[in-house]
Amino acid sequence: MVQLLGIPPQALFGQLLLGLINGSFYALLSLGLAVIFGMLNVVNMAHGALYMVGAFLAWLLMTHAGIGYWPALVLAPLMVGAIGLLLERTMLRRLYKVDHLYGLLLTFGLALIFEGIFRHQYGVSGQPYPIPDLLKGGSNLGFMFLPTYRGWVVAFSLLVCFGTWYAIERTRLGAYLRAATENPTLVQAFGINVPVMVSLTYGFGVALAGLAGVLAAPIYQVNPLMGSNLIIVVFAVVVIGGMGSILGAIVTGLGLGLLEGLTKVFYPEAANIVVFVIMAVVLMIKPAGLFGRER
């Protein structure tokens, strides 16, 4: 079929791989957004900026502290999570009882501040981050060449995404989190410190963005605009999957990444808008999103 259309199989599978890699980042980032919105009801416009901060922290750890990729894969998300805890405790917590628009405007302002700081310090040119030695090279699968690092990104992203889904949907901790969003007073009566749980939830959500940034650093050059270039598509993914839906964020992120890759093969001119076309169609048919519930 591919040959009949005049498209070499290597080109098709190569674009599908790129789509799967992009989809992995969409899934990780939209998962963090879904966790934050589903548990805190906050539209976190700073998510893309914190993704960029995660990539820069990995680069700074390497260049200034001599810390390699594997420790940075743990340290950078923890540092981004700590930033998130600080933001939630000092700013966001004051806005939970007012209109959601205030939280959106606050996080949008924070995104501009983070981006401005790094643009002032490092400009807009990208900073290179080397692929770790263990993940260099690739494998010839016959129909395509699979770079080892890109295969690692896809596999690790899937592990983190579905591990998070399992923790929230199938464990006691996840049940407490879901209950705290519906009836925090009742959950607190069971001895659960709901404010601390809320803070940790926000910290975890933005740590996922930091983790995505570390994974992206060896693929894309680290630069202050990398988050703003991606976050619009990620918000579209979250809307299509359903605001606050964990499974929707994962499945939709991966699926739209693959669809975007296929579009680049068969109709490249539409590759940059296909996600938004799908969002418009989904919102007309099912305003709550594919996996969302009507509120």
End-to-end CA span: 44 Å
Order of helices and strands: HHHHEEHHHHHHH
* CA-based gyration radius: 19 Å
Determine and state the CATH class.
Mainly Alpha
Describe this protein's structure.
This protein has 295 residues and is mainly α. It has a single domain (13-124, 149-285), classed as ABC transporter involved in vitamin B12 uptake, BtuC (Orthogonal Bundle). Helix content is 71%, strand content 2%. The protein contains eleven helices and two strands. The chain has helices at residues 9-40, 47-65, 69-90, 100-122, 148-170, 172-182, 184-189, 194-216, 226-241, 246-266, 274-285, and strands at residues 138-140, 145-147. The chain has a two-stranded antiparallel ribbon. Helix 1 runs parallel beside helix 5. The longest helix has 32 residues, at 9-40. The N and C termini lie far apart (44 Å).
